[in-house]
Amino acid sequence: MATEIYISNATPHSNHLGTKDLSARVVDRTPLLRPMFLPYFPFFGRKGTLDEVLVDGAAFESIYGAETLDERSPYFNHASVFIKGILNAGGKIIAKRIVPEKDRKYASLRVSLEYVETQVDEYVRDPSGHFKLNNNNDNETTGRKVPGALFRFHVEEIPTVTLNTGAGNIETFQFGMGAQSVSDLTDGNGQVGKRVPLFDFVAPSPGEHGNLNGMALWAPTTISPSPVNYVPLNDAKAYPYRLRLVTKPTATSSPAISYSRLGMPEIDFCLKPEARSKAGVDYHIGDVFLDSYNDLIPENPLVPPTYGPFSRLHVYQENVDFVLSMLVKKETDVEKIGDLTNVTDENINDLRYLFNVLGGTHSDGTPYQTYRRATIGGSATPLGENTYVWAKGGRDPVMTDALFEAEVDALLKEFEDPNSKYMDEVQFNDSVFIDTGYSLDFKRKMGRYLANRKDRWVLATTYVNGEKPTTAAEELGRISMIAGAIRRYPDSQIHGTSAFRCVVAKGSGLLAKSVSSYKKRVPITYEIAVLLTKYWGAGNGIANSRWDWSEGSNNKFNYLIDVTSGFVPYQVRNGYWAAGGMWAQQDERKTSYFPAFRTIFDDDTSTLTNMRTMLVHVDINKIGAEMQRVFSGKDWTQDRMKQEMTEWFYDQLKGNKYGGKVEINVKITFTKMDVQRGYSWHTEVTVFSDHFYTVQTFESINRRRSDKTVDDDTITA
Q1: What is the span of the domain harbouring residue 466?
Q2: Is the pTM above the cut of 0.85?
Q3: HEC profile of 287-356
Q4: Which of 297, 312, 419, 639 is the most buried (most CB within 10 A)?
């Protein structure tokens, strides 16, 4: 339809209204892709963030280091065994590095300027601007002294101060809390120097690994091998410094350059706040440093964060501004040349950032008259392109199973809190907590993991790390104890459904030498975890039927040998089953297998006893949570809501999501109360699943061969 506009008269002219775009379309939301088997895993690690991160094998090694999953390293424990097996099978985990708060010692660097105000000899310059040499090859003086400053740099780890409070001693890491102090630098005539912090740098994670991170800081000039960058000098009126980060795999290794995210071996920076080129490129170190080496919040949420050698920086800008004001005043009171030619009393605050505090020269390499490098000695540290300063202070905690378990126990306590961050279904979309061999006391408390969410389950074992095989009676007691503890968290109080989102498996075995060099016994849940990784853990969120445990020989063990089960008498098996447990048996080839994959549900006639059914309900609840996020805020009619939500839900199940082993129906309804409220709806999902077969009634009948009729279906044997 043509657009009507106001036309004042018939003067010949053309009204150009611009382009009306009718080609745009509403973009459908891309279906969420996530593994259905996604364990939450605490672990000891060599390095890496303490925040939870979704990782695959490559990302895990990049963030936490290959040593973390090295069986010979001090970081490797019973949880590491499972992590390595799951990642090697192509799975993903939500990783949580454990470092007790009291043991979080970060490697760090504090760079301070040390200076002493004093009278210095004024030197004669040659035509190039450099100092003229006398016959003794010393700088030739004018015969007078001028007010100046001797300087050097001091690099140290950021200290931790113990404060005595009414609640006891508290250790405070002094990041960003450095203060001016007295230096041991003197002018030789009684003048005492000052130490002024300029920068604090901190490694991204606690531990000794941070001590292998270092840097070079310098002020390039036109005569440097890699000359000064004149863009910020001219555009922002600020001296451009340069920084290079390096790392070492071990303390005795040679340093390797840590390239920026743009692939640059070095970055340029200034000390002037909001320094920016005419092209809009930022140069202030506070604006460019962290982003150059870290991507802590990736635009793609499925991509793990990137951590550089240092992920925290504090610039002591007030200190920087103070020393620059003082130093540039001293210099320009004596002479105004080079970069400082145009400095006046009126513009000194803006142009003070042209002063080269790190190098003591103009950009052409000519030295300042009043700012002299002190003889290096004492506690001073030289800074330069070929001089690396290394972070210090990072220390690993004492890593024991008891300490590890205490920290994981504290985590599960947070999971039980309905107001904790772990209730966030988006950030924490894990589906299972795996008992990798925790103590009996810990096992009693694992139900906290699934207490407040219906989209989580627990894979438990009766095995305790480091122990020898136990008796049948002890195993039965442990199954009963674990299942009983989980049953304190019923699945639905409204519907009267008892707990079923838990699998308890008894027994242990040794990892085959072809699998691992780990020599301790491992719970048989390792086999279940790796099998589920292959079957239920694909990144596309679709079951891989090749590894369906009900098909072929997929229920047989592939990784563990010397399994503790062996022959299990019926009366013993009956006790295990009644308590809610599962176990391994041996076939005639002495191969271990699982006779059934069951949950702890206490009604044998219900398909909720089937582990597959439980896994489907766990995942259905994740889809339900996503459904609310997708359709929240839609001001549609009821009919449209029903139609679109139904279509969306079924779209999430495309591709035989659950291996074709269940049938699912969804109904969107608006109850009387929903209609009255006007903002709510009811989603009912029905899962039609099969029970597993476990009991056979067998008999043999003997008859004469002559009694065979044509209707008898037989083979000759």
Answers
A1: 39-100+397-610
A2: yes
A3: HHHHHHHCECCCCCCCCCCECCCCCEEEECHHHHHHHHHHHHHHHHHHCCCHHHCCCCCCCHHHHHHHCC
A4: 312
